[in-house]
TrEMBL record, chain A:
Family indicated by similarity: Belongs to the cytochrome P450 family.
Keywords noted in UniProt: Heme, Iron, Metal-binding, Monooxygenase, Oxidoreductase
Keyword Iron: yes
Gene3D superfamilies: Cytochrome P450
Descriptive protein name: Cytochrome P450
From TrEMBL, chain B:
Protein name (Swiss-Prot/TrEMBL): Ferredoxin
Gene3D superfamilies: 3.30.70.20
Molecular-function GO terms, alphabetical: 3 iron, 4 sulfur cluster binding; electron transfer activity; iron ion binding
InterPro entries referenced in this protein's UniProt entry, alphabetically: 3Fe4S_ferredoxin, Fe-S_cluster_ET
Record's keyword terms, sorted: 3Fe-4S, Electron transport, Iron, Iron-sulfur, Metal-binding, Transport
Cofactors that this protein relies on: [3Fe-4S] cluster
Amino acid sequence: MTTIDPTPRTYPFSAPDRLRLDPFYAELRKQEPVSRVRLPYGETAWLATRYSDVRTVFADPRFSRAESAERDEPRARPTQQRTGILTMDPPEHTRLRKLVAKAFTARRVEQLRPRAQRIADDLVGRMRRKGAPLDLVEEFALPLPITVICELLGVPYEDRDDFRVWSDAFLSTSKLSEQQVEDYVAQMRAYMAELVEQRRARPEDDLLSGLIQARDEQDKLSETELLDLAVGLLVAGHETTATQIPNFVYVLLTHPAELEWLRNSPERVPEAVEELMRFVPLGVNAAFPRYALEDVELGGVLIRAGEPVLASLASANRDEEVFERPEELNLARGSNAHIGFGHGPHHCLGAQLARMELQVALGTLLGEFADLRLGVAEQDVSWKTGMLVRGPRRLPVAWGAD
Amino acid sequence: MSWRVEVDGATCIGSGMCSAIAEGYFELVDGVSQPVRTEVEPTDDVVDAAESCPVEAVIVRDADSGRKLAPEH
């Protein structure tokens, strides 16, 4: 058994610093792979940092997400989400997830690639016309995934300025006040409820209409579940990819040798996307704790029934037992068993969609701008704060002669 | 032409996605999925099940050639 420091450490261990993962995770993986931590809100928790333990926490049915809804979940934000697909276990979770899973399979997503490519081509065309420097977040990273998820789900793209603001409420730790979070969540739900009524009256060929049909004709889900699911798809369907596109571009522009390699091997963009998924710690800290339903031994410690465990994806993706020279970005790494999309029943539903969009985004940007570069000094890039995810607030880029 | 359906019992976490998506093709036995029949007529449902498995434990092959049909990744 490992010796555990009985005093929980304050977690996250440090304020987020760009895309740098706190080196303390590496120390924990070596010295104390499952340790005690205290988050800004909720109960004291265990934190798993090794790849194998993290996978166990996410996949082993003895660890429950549903239980968190009954408890004061360890978390980085004042509000706690107690409903929705992320606070459910199989088989309840499976009942909801299967209603949308078919829309996100690799095959279905491949059919969307030509449309995503046209959107990306239009966006870089507009960037050329506007001229450098400009903000990649606003001009490319946001509109690409928002357009795709709007068309897939059946949400009017014209409403994006509204739901973009409300979306932050689902990812804010301290950016928004508790009141703002409450207001924006309520506005998002009211917006979606209205959209559901419109589709109910006039169904279209989109996922929202499909969910309404599953509710009304087959009684597969409740009205609350329908709303939670639709809101979840809209938020998760764009925020994460819209943040990862500038993250990936930032990493490439600050790793010139790797960028050069990718420019010379554009057919290896899919492989590069996997390595970037491993390398970029999107989440500021481990989130969505699982509760042990019985006593479980994990990484040499005994987790008692009823205790919450957080598992760090970012740390797992840097585990030296699994990845050679894990701290290095190596786009040609080849076989890459990263868990950047999570693992187990809650493994990112939109992983294939995100992969496709990220591949299209990188391929298009590198193909269009042979000399893409940061439009400001690296230290002047401004980063999001008070959010669950890391990413540039704005990413000024330039190309051609200044 | 027929397909062969396999579930890697060591990888399976018993999420039940396959039996939910392809009803009648998979069953959970002691928390682990098993194909009801290993050889099946081609149907989209089993491909969707293989592509929706959160740990990619479900594999669909061409029964004659053994070529993997799903999942793609």
